[in-house]
Structures are given as C-alpha cells and as structure tokens.
Amino acid sequence: MRHPIFMTLCAATLGLSACSPPATDGQAEVERALQDLNVVDENNLNDIMLTVGDANEAVAYFNNANANDPGRIELQRGLAKSLVRANRPQEAIPAWQTVINHPESSNEDSVELADAYIRNNSWDEAATTLNTIPPTYETFKRYRLEAMVADSREQWDKADSFYETAVGLTTRPASVYNNWGYSKLTRGDYAGAERLFIDALRFDDDLFTAKNNLVLARGAQRQYALPVVPMTQVERAQLLHTMALAAIKQNDVSIGKSLLAEAIETHPQYFEPAVRALEALENNAVN
C-alpha cells in the first residue's frame, strides 16, 4: 500500500519543479527585462536631450554618459550634435572626428563633420571631408554643404549645380533658395538673386532673412518699393530701414531719408537704428 503513495508524492514533486523555475533563473529574467526597459528609457532621454533640451545641458549630459559608458557611437553622436546646437563648433569638430573613427560610423557622420568645419569657417577641411564621401551618397544636406563650399571658392557653376540638386532633394527648400540667392547677390546678379528670394518665400513666407535679402536685391537695382510679401508691422519697419540703407549706398540720399522717416513712423515702438541713421544724414546735410 505504501508504494502507490510514494509514487504520487514523487509525481507531485516533479510537477511543482517543472512549473516553477529556480529562483536564480527568474531573477535573471527580471534583470534582463529591467535592462531592456532601461535601454528604451535611455534612448528616449537621448532623443529629448537632442531636441527640446537646453543645448549646453545636453552637452553636459552626453559628456557624462560617454564617461560612464565609453565607446558607444550613439552617445558620441549625441555629444557632437549637442556641441553644434550649442554653437560650439570648435569643440564639435574633434567630437565628430571621434565618431568618424568609430567602426560603426556612416557617410552621414562625415557630412556632419563637414558641417562643423563650415560653422568654424574651416572651408578647406570641409571640402576635404566631403571629398571622402562616395558620390553615390546623395542627400540634401551633403549637396547643400557642397554648394556652400563651392561658393566659398567662387566656383559659381559648381555652386549653382549643387544648389539645384539640393533643392530637388527636399520638400522644404526655402533655406536653400535663400542661400542660393545670397550667393547670386554677392556675385552682383541682383535680378537672379531677387528671383531666388521670391522662391524662398514661396515655400516659407515667414523667413525674414529672405525678405531682408529680397529688399537688398531690389535696392541694388534701384527698385525702392517694398516687395508684395506677407509682413508684420515690425517687419515692414525693418525692411524700410534696409531699403533706406540700400538707397543711401546708391547715393539716392533723399529717397533714403524718406524711407527712414517712413520706417520710424511705421514701427510700433521707438526704432533707434533708423532714428540714428536719419539724424546722421540730417547732421551731414547741415554741416
């Protein structure tokens, strides 16, 4: 009679063993789950620091993260990007060089290094870096930077070709048209510059730099009427001030004085730069 009871107890014991893993295995699974959760949380935090966080706080965060966990390319990239956002290109350059030397670096990282060089006015280094990228790697940012480097070397045909390619690789080309227009402005092609600034505003009518540059291009052609583009009252006053300075530069002083007076009257607050400019003209006329 004892034999069947013994067998039943053994079966029950075996069943319990099969259903409940040893404590050490369970703990390992929990730790793995927590580790995965930490990775997700860390990635979210990294993204936040790269976008909405204060740039200098992001630099401190990624510096600390790299010190605690060296060799991770996403942390090295985070530091390099944060330094660029913080307007610290001189420090961003070696940070991007560290990324480039990582075995997991990409062509995009080389483009970002070239961007840091340009922000530091290191044009030759930017050109050298861009030349290391295969021509088959075609992105908006790559060609935008290529155009800027060509501009710096006054290689106008190349610049135009690169700007045109960059425009075709983005759905938001306003800034490219603005840069391209400024390039034409520096070459003395004022009509061409005007057309490109209008194109920029067609894609982004809030881009004030394009409005200001458009006024400069028109002023250089002695066209002193403000362009028909959307503008606030403050922007109108600022653009009248820019147009006035352009007229004075062309020796159309009386027109410049009239535009300055209109700018002062238009601005909803005291417009000190325009007031100073008008007073200087009137004092010169008296003297």
From TrEMBL:
InterPro entries: TPR-like_helical_dom_sf
Alphabetical keyword list: Signal
UniProt keyword annotation of Signal present: yes
Key word Signal present: yes
Pfam families registered for this protein in UniProt: TPR_16
Range of residues in the leader sequence: 1-23
Identification of the protein by name: Tetratricopeptide repeat protein
Organism listed in the record: Yoonia phaeophyticola
